[in-house]
Amino acid sequence: MERFEEVVSRKGTRSVKWDMAEDLYQDKEVLPMWVADMDFKTPSAVTNAIKERAEHGIFGYTIPDAKVKESITHWLENRHHWKIDQEWITYSPGVIPSLHMIIQSLTEIGDHIIIQTPVYPPFYSVIKDHGRHVVKNALQLKEEQYEIDFADFEKKIKENDVSMFILCNPHNPVGRVWKKEELEKMMDICLKYDVKVVADEIHADLIYKGNVHVPIASLSEEAAKQTITCLSPTKTFNLAGLQASYVVIPDETDKKKVDRHFKNQGMLMLNTLGVTAMEAAYEHGEEWLIELMDVLENHRDYVTQRFQNETSSIRVFPAEGTYLLWLDCRKLGMDQTELKRFMQKEAKVGLNDGASFGEEGEGFMRLNIAAPKSIIEDGVNRIIEAVKAQEQ
């Protein structure tokens, strides 16, 4: 696991996470542990494939061929026991662009779209930016984890004539990996009211032991035709800057509508090196991923135990997936403005503001643990020392 302990400086690489931190937090000493990318080098097989492609020296218009599709279908079947038809695949530069395209092509202005809050901030904007209305099915905060309020889910869908549901699985930021039974209940309700399901499953490969990611479209043939699934190797293998993702659309009519919208917006092909990286990652990255998950699990447990043993003011919700930890800071007794200031000015760590995920996130912060252990230790030490000073 030595390759995951190497601290690689990302400053000066136009890194959003590191080079924007000083402007964002107004302090060059703040340790950035926010935006969801990793401080680990991608698998060497991916780097080598990119180098080989770069050495060719010509970067003209590029199409993902059958070999790329084969790498995708094999990965989904091997990792998630989901057998898909290659013809269901539509390529996209990213999950967020895909959500924009899907919403515009499969819903109408004025439609209501339901999301489960607190949730990834762009879920709000991709709905509102196109004249659609957000309907919230707030997750229920129980003692140990978040749960779905199924009665409220159905009630909101029925009362608002909801046309689309954007599912986040694994869930960002609360870290839940929805169980098959939970997915089945949601799908049954969506089928009952003919609600189209858009599944953001970009964190699908980042699953901790004892949990299993089930693609909601894999539940049944009926579920598949009701679902559009957004996927990408970018979170899994730290390739976000290469902008390569894809959408799986089993329903022929839906696929034609979405493809037409991509075409109308001029999104006709992927980045040349993104195609190369996606294929290499899916063909040769599994061993690296297995090792990565052991590292992340160790980091998750380390952070959880440190806070549990050294302060009662911050609680870590047990993540079942993703490399993002949801910190409950409500016992600090601060409002959200005070909490953000405390983390930035006193602890000197750059975290994601819980309130950016919705009002249900007030009193919380999100911490990225996809970094070498020394960085994780530094960040945890800073927070705990600041909390202890606050409590004196």
UniProtKB/TrEMBL annotation:
The record's section on CDD domains has:
AAT_like
Query: Which organism is this entry from?
Result: Halobacillus trueperi
Gene Ontology molecular function, alphabetical: cysteine-S-conjugate beta-lyase activity; pyridoxal phosphate binding; transaminase activity
EC number(s) in its UniProt entry? 4.4.1.13
Spell out the family assignment given in the record's similarity comment.
Belongs to the class-II pyridoxal-phosphate-dependent aminotransferase family. MalY/PatB cystathionine beta-lyase subfamily.
Query: Which PANTHER family does the record match to this protein?
Result: PROTEIN MALY
Keywords from the named record = Aminotransferase, Lyase, Pyridoxal phosphate, Transferase
- Which cofactors go with this protein? pyridoxal 5'-phosphate
Question: Domain named Aminotransferase class I/classII large: which ranges?
Answer: 35-373
The protein, known as: cysteine-S-conjugate beta-lyase
